[in-house]
Amino acid sequence: MRYFRPLIHQAVGHRPSPYLSPDTPIIKLNSNENPYPPSPQIFTVLKNFDGEWLRRYPDPYAQEFCTAAA
């Protein structure tokens, strides 16, 4: 029993870009690489960031927003 069409078996898989050493002057923007370090301000923000709310889905009815907007 075959699960895939022959065309699928003939397809060439993804070939990732070659790894570039860190000292190369090439910046691979297509890989979302950033040639600059984070802003020093971001470290201050992250030290004081309370990520507890990130582990839960938001209120589907947006009660807090609806109350503030009303």
UniProtKB/TrEMBL annotation:
Cited InterPro entries = PyrdxlP-dep_Trfase (IPR015424), PyrdxlP-dep_Trfase_major (IPR015421), PyrdxlP-dep_Trfase_small (IPR015422)
Q: What top-level branch of life does the organism fall under? A: Bacteria
What Gene3D superfamilies does the record tag this protein with? Aspartate Aminotransferase, domain 1, Type I PLP-dependent aspartate aminotransferase-like (Major domain)
What name appears for this protein in its UniProt entry? Histidinol-phosphate transaminase
